[in-house]
Amino acid sequence: MTLHPGVLAVPDPLLGRNSFEEYLRKLLEWSSILNANWVALCISLRSHEVLAASNSYPNREDLSKSFQSFGIREYSINDIASVVTFILTKSMALEAETGIQDASWTKFQCTPPIHSAGTNDPFHDELTRLLVILSIHLRHLDRNRSNHVLAVATRPNNVSEAAVHADIDLIEFTSATTHVNTPLSLKESIIICDDHLSLVCALDECELISTAFDQESVARSIRIAWVKESISAGLKATMEDTPPFRIGNEFLTSVRDSGVLSSTGKTQKLMSTILDVLLRRNLQKSHALRRDSGGASCTVRRGTDKAIRWDIDYEHHLHVWDMQNGIPEFASVVPHHIMDIPS
After folding, report:
1. How many angstroms from the chain centroid is the CA of residue 198?
2. What is the pTM for the complete model shown?
3. Under a CB-based contact definition with an 8 Å cutoff, are residues 311 and 317 in contact?
4. Alpha helices, DSSP H only, in the chain?
5. How far is residue 78's CA from residue 31's CA, in Å, rounded to a whole number?
6. For 243, phi and psi rounded to 5 degrees?
7. What CA–CA distance (Å, rounded) separates 96 from 45?
8. Is the dihedral angle over the CA atoms 286, 292, 293, 299 positive or is it negative?
9. pLDDT per position as a tens digit, 56-74
10. How many alpha carbons fall within 13 Å on the CB side of residue 234?
11. Residues whose CB is less than 8 angstroms from the CB of residue 97 and which lie 6 or more positions away in sequence, other chains included
12. Strands 305-311 and 286-288
């Protein structure tokens, strides 16, 4: 995720207390994400320059005036100033991450228009530059086509994606070995967010579980799916609100080996079934996992934990340990004829 410098710019006190408190809230959210280390956070090398040119670098004196004017005591001035410094010094440089130092263009169009916070030209120009760099990167350099989100201070009409169309004259790369033929006409979509919740909603849980590399990354994809499901139901939710669950030691390997990641449709059915377990819905899709197909076969148990078999589709099943404390442990994904469950 790349932060537009407008995210760090302290708002004009004339915009009022609500605007200033919203700025503080979002700033702390981005800092927590950087600390949590589950999103690679980038800023452009021009961020300091843009903040200085617009006279909106959040120094302690400006923060002190706003804190006093609005009577804010929930936050510390030093803490907020330190957060900005932390983000500016600890985030990766977008130019180094993408390998694009700069670019020039003769035509640029963004649909719908994404306006940066404030009315200063440095913010507008840098926003355009970031959209161009990200578009070039995603279209021509990112072989994995991975998600890359642009965080702005505000999203007009809660826009979640912007279509960029630009005619590029020249691209300046950080390495002499990288090359893209110019001039070129570029069309690309960029994901836009303006806070932690809109970031979560912009992420693709199916892509995330498909590229998961350990139990925590699997768990994170499930939490993101649960938050998005809750929001679609009209509920307020954060990843911390997700019902407790566990990921078995062999779960990720079984998911890869099962073939459910071979198509988006199958992966979506897997995620939907996992949500069924967490939300205790569609219970007709579940039944006790028995030791064999015999009618008198007993239920598989692990001490006091009970093994449950959930239907993903006709071909695949999700095996879950229903633990005595009510917390599910996702154990494995298997073909329909497999009755085993990792203990």
Report:
1. 8
2. 0.81
3. yes
4. 17-36, 47-53, 60-70, 77-90, 94-98, 121-136, 196-202, 205-210, 215-232, 251-258, 264-279
5. 14
6. -55, 145
7. 9
8. negative
9. 887 777 788 888 888 888 8
10. 0
11. 40, 42
12. antiparallel
For every residue of 196-262, DSSP letters joined together read HHHHHHHS-HHHHHHT--SHHHHHHHHHHHHHHHHHHTT----GGGSPP-EE-TTHHHHHHHHTGGG
Under a CB-based contact definition with an 8 Å cutoff, are residues 112 and 159 in contact? Answer: yes
Query: What pLDDT does residue 119 have?
Result: 46
Taking a C-beta distance cutoff of 8 angstroms, is the pair 173, 154 a contact? Answer: no
User: Residue 273 to residues 165, 258, 293: CA-CA distances in angstroms?
Assistant: 39, 15, 23
CA distance 247 to 330: 5
pLDDT in tens, 100-119: 999 999 999 999 888 654 44
CA 4 – CA 127 distance, rounded (Å): 7
Cβ(268)–Cβ(206) under 8 Å? yes
Residues with Cβ < 8 Å from 121, sequence gap 6 or more?
A: none
Say how far apart CA 333 and CA 275 lie, in whole Å: 15
